[in-house]
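Re: your question about MaoC family dehydratase

S., sorry for the slow reply, the queue was backed up all week. Below is exactly what I fed in.
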Amino acid sequence: MRGLYFEEFEVGKVYKHPFTRTVTEMDNIMFTSLTMNLQPLHLDEEFAKTTIHGRRVFNSLFTLALIGAFHVPELTMGTTLGNLGYDEVKFPHPVFHGDTLRAETTILDKRESKSRTDSGIVWFEHRGYNQDDVLVCLCRRVGLMLKKPADADSNEKES
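Result:
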């Protein structure tokens, strides 16, 4: 399985990724602990009860990483050269333990690289939703994508 080459991206196309993931207390505690984020809103149930949420809130960087990964098998597996940057990241609604997340990606724009002949630049918008179809994460990012190699058609026919 491979992602799309630069030429295969269509501006305006929306991909509704087939994967979902229920996020767990363990996910939140492990990610928060591994990244040394001491925020009690993520780790301390008693503290969290005193906040506007009334319970622990998922670490937003985990949410971003998960939503940002749903597209990989479909769009960028083996065809990306890396992220160039994030233009916008928003978390309009909190994520809680037990929420089930899904994602969609829209191709916002693309252009050929000015410095590399083997690649182009693609602008993505990734949106994450919970089980109630509430938007929980919006991310606009820029990626450097491989162009289709000259021998790609013959290699794919052999597979």
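The longest helix spans residues 25-34. The longest strand covers residues 100-112.

Happy to talk it through on Thursday.
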